[in-house]
Automatic annotation (TrEMBL), chain A:
Protein name in the entry: ABC transporter ATP-binding protein
Entries under InterPro entries matching the protein: AAA+_ATPase, ABC_AA/LPS_Transport, ABC_transporter-like_ATP-bd, BCA_ABC_TP_C, P-loop_NTPase
Keyword flag Acetylation: no
Gene3D superfamilies: P-loop containing nucleotide triphosphate hydrolases
Listed GO MF terms: ATP binding; ATP hydrolysis activity; L-isoleucine transmembrane transporter activity; L-phenylalanine transmembrane transporter activity; L-valine transmembrane transporter activity
Keyword terms, alphabetized: ATP-binding, Nucleotide-binding, Transport
Source species: Lysinibacillus composti
PROSITE patterns per UniProt: ABC_TRANSPORTER_2
A Pfam match: ABC_tran
From TrEMBL, chain B:
InterPro entries noted in UniProt: ABC_transp_permease, BCAA_transport_permease
Keywords, comma-separated and alphabetical: Amino-acid transport, Cell inner membrane, Cell membrane, Membrane, Transmembrane, Transmembrane helix, Transport
Location within or outside the cell: Cell membrane
Record's protein name: Branched-chain amino acid ABC transporter permease
Source organism of this protein record: Lysinibacillus composti
Record-level GO cellular component terms: plasma membrane
Membrane topology per record: Multi-pass membrane protein
C-alpha cells in the first residue's frame, strides 16, 4: 500500500524549472530517501508536498486523497509533518513549548474552556505536557525541557525538530537533511533513532540526506533527483551501481 | 523642594498608576499585533475611542430603563458587551483591510491603518451627532464618591491623597485584564500558538497551526482590551469625543515602544512608567524648573524620557536586541 503517490509533479519559478515531471510512490511504513546533488530540487519537492509551494502541474495524493491546493496547516492536519534543512525551531520558546506547539491540533481546548478555565481544559493541558515529556524522553532531551531551544547544542536542536514534528502525530514525516552538520557520533545516534522511530510511532519516513552511509543503511527505497528530474529509483544496491547516479554525482568522466 | 515633591507623591502615584494602567492595556493591543504581523496598527487608538462611545451609549441606555441595577453589575455587563463588539470590529478590520495586504510592503498596511482611523472617527462622529446632536458626549456619572487616603498618617512628609471610586475600578479592571492576558499568552494552547506564529509564521503553519485564525484571535483580544479600556476611560473622565483615540493611542504606542515593541510584559511596564512619569511631571514641573515650565509641559517631559531611554536602549526596556541578518 502506498501512503504517498506523486504523479508528474512540476514546479516552475518564472523561467526556472525546479522540478519536472517527478513521480514517486512511497510505501506505507517504509523509510525512503530522496537524494541528489545540491540544487537538484529536493527541498522544492518537500515544499510542494507540505503545501508551502503550490505545484505548477501534477498530483500529490496522501492515502489516495489529493492534497494539492491545501494550505500548510491543512496538509499538517492530514498527517504530514517535517523538519528543515536549516533548523527552524521556535528559538525563544522552551524545549517543551516547542513540542506543545507541535501538539496544537490535537488539543481540543476551545477558547471558552480557556477563559472559564474549565477542569477539562486543565486536565487536557496537563496530559499534553506529560505526553510532550514522554516524547522528549524518547529523544533523550527530557533533562532540557525548560531550556530555551536556542541554547541547545546543534545535535540536540536537530533531535528536537524531529520530536516536534512527531508531536503532530503524522502518518508521514519528511526529514530534510537530518544529519547535516552533525559529527559522526551524533549521526550514528540519529541513524538509530530514525530506524526505531518508524516502527514505534507508526510513521512512514521520507528523508533527504547527503550522508550516503546513513542513506544506504536506512533506506528501503531511494529516489535520485538531478536538475529537477528523477533519474533513478531502486533499492540501495541498485542505486549504488546505477551509472546515471554516478554520473550525476561525479560527472560523466567517472562512468567511462 | 524635595519636601514638596514628597508631599504630592501619594497623589502622583495614584493618578499615575491609573493613567498608566490605561496606557498599558491599550499598548497591549499595539504590541500583540506588531509581534505577530510586524504591523503598527494605528487604528487601535480609534478602537479604544469606539469602545468609549459604545460603553457610554450602553450606560445611558441601560440606566434609561430605570431599573436599579447595582453599579458594579452594570459595569461588568457594559464591559463585556463593549469588549465583544470592539473585538469583532478588530477582527473585521483585519479581515477587510489588512489580510489582503499581508504580503504587501510594510508601508502600505500602515497607510491603510491611518485610513481606518479616519473612517472610524467619522463614523462615530456621524452616529453621535445623529443621535445626540453633538459629537461631544458626556456619560452618566458613576462611582463618583470620593475616597480620602490618610497617607499623612504613614509619614508626615506626605500630604493626604484623594480619589474617586472610579480610579480604583479603572486600576483593578486594568490589572485584571493584564493578568488574564499574561496567563492566556503564556499558559494556554492558543497563547502558545500565538507566540509560535510571532516567532515564525511559516513553521507554525507547518506544525498544523491555522495562522489566519491565530491572527484573528490576536486582533479580537487586542481590540477587546482596547474597547474595554475605552469604557474605563469614559467612566473616569466623563466627557468623550471622537478624537480622544489619537493622542491616547499615540501615547500607548509610545508605551509599547518604551517597553520593547512585540513584548507583552514590556507594554505593561512601559504603560505604567509613562503614566507615572506624566503625572509626576504634571505635579512637579513648575517646581523643578522654577516656574518656567508648567504642568502643561508634562508630555514633553514624558517624551524626553522616552527619547533618552531609546538612545541608550533602542530595543526598549524589555525588548531583545535583534542582530541584523547578513
Amino acid at each position: 500500500m502506498d501512503i504517498l503517490e506523486v504523479t508528474n509533479l512540476t514546479k516552475e519559478f518564472g523561467g526556472l524549472t525546479a522540478n519536472k515531471d517527478v513521480s514517486m510512490n512511497v510505501k506505507e511504513g517504509s523509510i525512503t530517501a530522496v537524494i541528489g546533488p545540491n540544487g537538484a530540487g529536493k527541498t522544492t519537492f518537500f515544499n510542494m508536498i507540505t503545501g508551502v509551494y503550490q505545484p505548477t502541474a501534477g498530483e500529490i495524493k496522501l492515502k489516495g486523497q489529493s492534497i494539492v491546493g491545501l494550505k500548510p496547516d491543512e496538509v499538517a492536519k492530514k498527517g504530514i509533518s517535517r523538519t528543515f534543512q536549516n533548523i527552524r525551531l521556535f528559538g525563544e520558546m522552551s524545549v517543551i513549548e516547542n513540542v506543545l506547539v507541535g501538539m496544537h491540533n490535537h488539543l481540543k481546548t476551545s477558547l471558552f474552556g480557556i477563559f472559564l478555565s474549565l477542569p477539562n481544559t486543565k486536565k487536557e493541558e496537563l496530559q499534553a505536557e506529560q505526553e510532550a515529556y514522554r516524547l522528549l524522553e524518547y529523544f533523550e532531551l527530557s533533562h532540557l525541557i525548560n531550556e530555551k531551544a536556542n541554547n541547545l547544542s546543534y545535535g540536540a536542536q536537530r533531535k528536537l525538530e524531529i520530536a516536534r514534528a512527531l508531536a503532530t502525530q503524522p502518518k508521514l514525516i519528511l526529514l530534510d537533511e537530518p544529519a547535516a552538520g552533525m559529527n559522526p557520533k551524533e549521526t550514528k545516534e540519529l541513524t538509530d533513532i530514525i530506524k526505531r522511530m518508524g516502527k514505534e510511532f507508526g510513521v512512514t519516513i521520507l528523508l533527504i540526506e547527503h550522508d550516503m552511509k546513513l542513506v544506504m543503511e536506512l533506506s528501503e527505497q531511494i529516489f535520485v533527483l538531478d536538475h529537477g528530474e528523477k533519474i533513478a529509483e531502486g533499492n540501495p544496491e541498485a542505486i549504488r551501481t546505477n551509472p546515471k547516479v554516478i554520473e550525476a554525482y561525479l560527472g560523466s568522466a567517472a562512468v567511462q | 523642594m524635595l519636601l514638596e515633591m514628597f508631599q504630592t507623591l501619594p497623589q502622583v502615584l495614584i493618578d499615575g498608576l491609573t493613567l498608566g494602567a490605561v496606557y498599558a492595556v491599550v499598548a497591549l493591543g499595539y504590541t500583540m499585533v506588531y509581534g505577530i504581523l510586524q504591523l503598527i496598527n494605528f487604528a487601535h487608538g480609534e478602537i479604544f475611542m469606539t469602545g468609549a462611545f459604545i460603553g457610554t451609549a450602553l450606560f445611558i441606555m441601560i440606566m434609561g430603563w430605570g431599573s436599579a441595577i447595582p453599579q458594579i453589575l452594570l459595569l461588568i455587563i457594559v464591559l463585556v458587551i463593549t469588549a465583544s463588539i470592539t473585538g469583532f470590529i478588530g477582527v473585521g478590520m483585519e479581515r477587510i483591510a489588512y489580510r489582503p495586504l499581508r504580503n504587501a510592503p510594510r508601508l502600505i498596511p500602515l497607510i491603510t491603518a491611518i485610513g481606518i482611523s479616519f473612517v472610524l472617527q467619522d463614523v462615530i462622529r456621524f452616529i453621535a451627532e445623529l443621535t445626540s446632536g453633538n459629537y461631544i458626549v458626556t456619560g452618566p456619572s458613576l462611582f463618583s464618591e470620593n475616597i480620602n487616603l490618610k497617607t499623612s498618617a504613614i509619614s508626615s512628609v506626605f500630604n493626604d491623597a484623594s480619589f474617586k471610586t472610579s480610579f480604583l475600578i479603572v486600576l483593578t479592571v486594568a490589572i485584571l485584564l493584564m493578568i488574564t492576558l499574561d496567563f492566556f499568552v503564556n499558559r494556554t494552547k492558543w497563547g502558545t500558538a500565538m507566540r509560535a506564529v510571532a516567532l515564525d509564521r511559516e513553521t507554525a503553519a507547518l506544525m498544523s497551526i491555522n495562522v489566519n485564525k491565530v491572527i484573528s484571535i490576536t486582533f479580537f483580544i487586542g481590540s477587546a482590551l482596547g474597547g474595554a479600556t475605552g469604557v474605563l476611560f469614559a467612566l473616569q473622565y466623563g466627557t468623550i469625543d471622537p478624537y480622544i483615540g489619537f493622542i491616547l493611542g499615540l501615547k500607548a504606542f509610545i508605551a509599547a515602544v518604551l517597553g520593547g515593541i512585540g513584548n507583552i510584559r514590556g507594554a505593561m511596564l512601559g504603560g505604567i512608567m509613562l503614566g507615572v512619569m506624566e503625572m509626576f511631571a504634571a505635579a512637579n514641573l513648575s517646581l523643578l524648573t522654577g516656574g518656567i515650565f508648567g504642568a502643561e509641559y508634562k508630555d514633553v517631559f514624558a517624551f524626553a524620557i522616552l527619547i533618552l531611554v531609546l538612545i541608550f536602549k533602542p530595543e526598549g526596556l524589555l525588548g531583545k536586541p535583534t542582530a541584523e541578518k547578513v
